[in-house]
TrEMBL record:
Similarity field: Belongs to the FGGY kinase family.
Keyword ATP-binding: yes
GO molecular function: ATP binding; rhamnulokinase activity
Entry protein name: Carbohydrate kinase
Xref: Pfam families: FGGY_C (PF02782), FGGY_N (PF00370)
Domain Carbohydrate kinase FGGY C-terminal: start-end pairs: 243-434
Gene Ontology biological process terms from the UniProt entry: D-xylose metabolic process; rhamnose catabolic process
Top-rank taxon: Bacteria
Length: 463
């Protein structure tokens, strides 16, 4: 994405340059990302951006959280594991035997997700081939956006918002929890120095600059490199009275706070305190998200049939009979595969009639997500004390009219949908502020978002 920002003139726009698939690859060692392919495609996108716009000032990088690459010197030790790989489940008990979950929560403030980096690293060490995975060989560990920044600049850093999803950063300090790292037996020296959104990571490596035809002076700037952190920057909300749902593969549902909430109630509700931009706290819970729909579609398409998503959602909207509302948070929906089969299995176990047609499955997924979104907003409000009057939906889910309407109806609160490209907008705004094209607090940046991308409103009573 190319972003153009001029806060004084009140302009903020995005130009879409390149989009490419980024799917998992199953290798003998498990489910991985094709990092090499990802890097090839994103550098081609950057070169294209530099051809279109010769005065690019900086580059900001964000991606999904928790996953990492291991390096020895400059060399990547294999393709990064995908967080949906099955290896993590077996490692959880071992970690909790050393640091019980209640203690972890006090230290790192994170909800339990079996793929948090802390469990992945424990799994890495217990690789089934008897090796310690690559951890013993590595001299640095970089989360995906940091790994991209390293390829581009040669600098090894850990951007704080994403580092906060590892489980190894103190919720109150924002720094690596060295004591925990040592107790868990991870090599402390692999963790890179923490930087904050807005910090400069310096110039491109000369070879990269030449390869991409980069304009002179372009630099890489740390942004909220956790995609959800960047998305929250671009939610045009008043955090004192609003909740947000950053809805794509996941539905990240919560509120923005000044201070973490690590009470027993927050822990029991499995709410996370992830680091936000400008020291804010993203107090939220991961709901399964549109993955339920996209993975079902992928299953139906496995023999080559192409499904039109718009038509499927239109058919889902016209289903009139009541459909099953299942627990969208059930861990069985995490792994890739036959999601419709697992939904039917959940229904059978709970004595609920399972959807029959694809339209009914799609409707059942939307209803279950809307119900989980509404319930999670209520929980976020109770746990944090924020009196939620409005729900903002950003990300791809903001385009899903049925989902937004049903979330408004099931929550009894107005839903403000958009911007769809919140992650890219939040990324660009933090760069723009670092470059002096914008200034002020997140509220000032959000005012610009609200005027450039007016949200679409869904009333709770609308039919
Ligand atoms: C969304 C996301 C989410 C994480 C998950 C791994 O893309 O970053 O915030 O929990 O991916």
């Amino acid at each position: 994405m190319l972003g153009r920002v001029d806060q004084r003139a009140g302009t903020l726009d995005l130009e879409h340059v390149a989009r490419f698939p980024n799917g998992p690859v199953r290798l003998a060692s498990g489910l991985h990302w094709d990092f090499t392919g990802l890097y090839r495609d994103l550098t081609a996108g950057l070169a294209d951006a530099f051809r279109r716009e010769t005065s690019v000032a900086s580059i900001g990088i964000d991606s999904w959280a928790v996953d990492y690459g291991l390096l020895r010197g400059d060399r990547l030790l294999g393709e990064p594991f995908h967080y949906r790989d099955e290896r993590n489940a077996a490692a959880v008990d071992g970690v909790h035997a050393i640091a019980p979950f209640a203690e972890l929560y006090r230290r790192n403030g994170l909800q339990f997700l079996p793929f948090n980096t802390v469990y992945q690293l424990a799994a890495e060490r217990a690789a089934p081939d008897g090796s310690d995975g690559c951890l013993g060989l590595a001299d640095s560990l970089l989360l995906v956006p940091d790994l991209i920044a390293f390829q581009l600049t040669g600098r090894r850093v850990a951007e704080r918002t994403n580092a906060s999803t590892t489980g190894l950063v103190g919720v109150h300090t924002g720094e690596w929890d060295d004591e925990l790292i040592e107790r868990l037996g991870f090599p402390a020296s692999v963790f890179a120095p923490i930087v904050a959104p807005g910090d400069s990571l310096g110039a491109l490596r000369p070879a990269v600059a030449a390869q991409l035809g980069a304009p002179a002076g372009v630099e890489v700037v740390a942004v909220g490199s956790h995609d959800t952190a960047s998305a929250v920057v671009a939610v045009p909300m008043n955090p004192e009275s609003a909740a947000y749902i950053s809805c794509g593969t996941w539905g990240l549902v919560g509120v923005e706070l000044e201070h973490p909430v690590t009470t027993d109630a927050a822990r029991d509700a499995n709410f996370t305190n992830e680091a936000g931009v400008d020291g804010r706290v993203r107090f939220l819970h991961n709901v399964m998200g549109l993955w339920l729909l996209s993975e079902s579609v992928r299953w139906w398409e496995r023999d080559g049939e192409a499904i039109d998503l718009t038509q499927l959602l239109a058919a889902a909207a016209s289903v009139t009979a009541p459909v099953a509302v299942f627990d969208a948070d059930d861990a069985r929906f995490m792994a890739p595969g036959d999601l419709p089969g697992r939904i039917a299995e959940w229904c059978a176990e709970h004595g609920v009639p399972a959807p029959q047609t694809r339209a009914e499955f799609a409707r059942s997924i939307i209803e279950s997500l809307a119900e989980a979104f509404a319930a999670t907003v209520r929980q976020a409000s109770v746990l944090s004390g924020v009196d939620v009057e409005t729900i903002h939906v950003v990300g791809g889910g903001a385009l899903n009219e049925l989902l937004c309407r049903r979330t408004a109806e099931r929550s009894g609160l107005p839903v403000l949908a958009g911007p769809v490209e919140a992650t890219a907008i939040g990324n660009v705004l933090v760069q723009a502020r670092a470059q002096g094209f914008a200034s002020g607090s997140l509220e000032d940046l959000r005012a610009l978002v609200a005027s450039a991308f007016a949200p679409r409103r869904y009333e709770p009573s609308a039919r």
